[in-house]
Amino acid sequence: IYSFTTQAIQLYGTASNEIKGNVISTTSNVVKAIYITENTDNTTISNNTVQVGRIDISGGVDTQSNNSIMNNAFSSVSGVAINIGTNAADTYVSGNNLNSTGTISDFGTNTVYGGQQDSGANGNYIIDPSGTGVLEARGVIQLNMGTANTNTAVCYNSSNQLAGCTSASRYKDDVEALSLGLTELNLLQPVSYTWNTTGKQDVGFIAEQVAAVIPQAVEYNLDGEVSTFNYHTISALLVASTQELSVKVDGIDGRLASVENRLTVLEQSVANNPINLTVTQNLTVGANIVVGGKVITSGDAPTVTVHANAGDGADATVQGNDTSGVVTINSGTVNILTGEQVSIVFHDSYTAVPKITITPSTEFSAKVRYYVEQDQNGFRILFLDMPEVSKQYSFNYWIAQ
After folding, report:
1. Which stretch of DSSP H or E encloses residue 253?
2. Cβ of 397: how many Cβ atoms within 10 Å?
């Protein structure tokens, strides 16, 4: 059978080729729909055709193993469909949905490149080289990654699109210095967690919590729900926070340098010009006190009271303070007895019973035997010998707690 110029069906040879019924209906738009060049059972449909083992128009297409659909096997035109299979076809291409001049092969080295053969590629499937089409998957997309050879990140935007992350200024408007910083960084709450889909333990952030602090750092899905947290925003926030800390550190360094300079000047002044140091409150020293000069005490004087045992007309005086001084006793004329002669009450009581050292300050005072009783509030001088009439007894005292 040989059709006219369009060659809808062209058969050569004497093999048992069979065409039954109205199996093929063609128009002048179909060029070389079926073109058989051999008369053996391993029939080859070539030149924009299909290589098969045998063509049985009434029963379908029967291929031998390792045969393939190759070299522009199918090219649909408007209104024509290709149905491969028996009753319910496994593959159905309607209208102009499949139109390629490239090669589709399980074992070839070429690929389909935007409807054109890309002879320089191997294992690549490139869709829409013009960049205007969309590949949409309603299920799960799994990528089996090859060897890593790039440091370019892939970002996911609010339109559910994957794109290379860029920081080029030509893609940005309204560029301003970041007003966020250390305050916002301290509000973020790093957490550890377990993925409920895989059971894998991980660390990071909760996108909803981040959205409350930095709304522009999260992405929302088509339902308006928070879906992902753009971890790249943390880099900008960390840089801003570091710069803020740097300013504070510079300020601290400046103040510290000022204090160090003042301390140096003070040390030099003390070394060159000794000064008096007055402490009006308690002073606690954790080590030894070495005094190269004199120890001079001061303070209010305690209160002194002469006892009746000193005799009629006796009196007493005190010169000094609660730390050191001199007690003088002038004995009376009659009714003189041993025992307590005078008592001293401190102006300010000690917090514990102090240690009191008393020494006679005159030769006559050294002749009498005496002793001291003390408590937190004061001390008393007692005689073991009878005081002489109208005599002066004088004692120095030194007190330390």
Report:
1. helix 232-272
2. 22
Q: How far apart are CA 155 and CA 164, in angstroms?
A: 6
Residue 43 to residue 37: CA distance in whole angstroms: 8
Structural domains in the chain, sorted by start = 179-251 (no CATH), 303-400 (2.60.40)
Return the residue matching tokens 């079926």.
Answer: 34
Tokens of 302: 């305690």
Token representation of residue 232: 């790249």
Joined tokens for residue 344:
């001293």
Q: What is the pTM of this model?
A: 0.38
For the stretch 203-260, pLDDT in tens is: 999 989 999 999 888 888 888 888 888 888 888 889 999 999 999 999 999 999 999 9
CB 382 within 8 A of CB 371: yes
Tokens of 294: 């004199």
Q: Do residues 165 and 157 touch, judged by C-beta distance below 8 A?
A: no
CA distance 90 to 23: 20
Q: What six digits make up the tokens of 39?
A: 């008369």
Which amino acid appears at position 165 of this protein?
A: C
Q: Which helix (H) or strand (E) holds 234?
A: helix 232-272
Which pairs from 355-359 meet CB under 8 Å and 24+ separation?
355/399, 355/400, 355/401, 356/397, 356/398, 356/399, 357/397, 357/398, 357/399, 358/327, 358/395, 358/396, 358/397, 359/395, 359/396
